[in-house]
Amino acid sequence: MPSVQTDLWFDTQALEAAEYWTSLVPGSRILEVFHDHGGNPFTVGEGSVLYVQFELGGQRYGAVNGGPHFQLDESVSLSLMCDDQAEVDRYWEELTREGSESMCGWCKDRYGMSWQIVPQEMMRLQADSDPVAARRSTQAMLAMHRLDVQTLRRIALRTEDQDRMPAPAPEQGRVPNHIEGAVRISAPAHEAWELISRPGWWVNDGRIREHEITSDGDRHTVTDPVHGTFALTVEDRLDGEFIAYRWEGFEGSDDPRTLTQFWVDPLDDGSCMVRMLESGFRDGGASDAALRPTYDDQAGGWCLELRALRSALDGS
Question: Which parts pass through the membrane (predicted)?
Answer without folding.
Answer: none
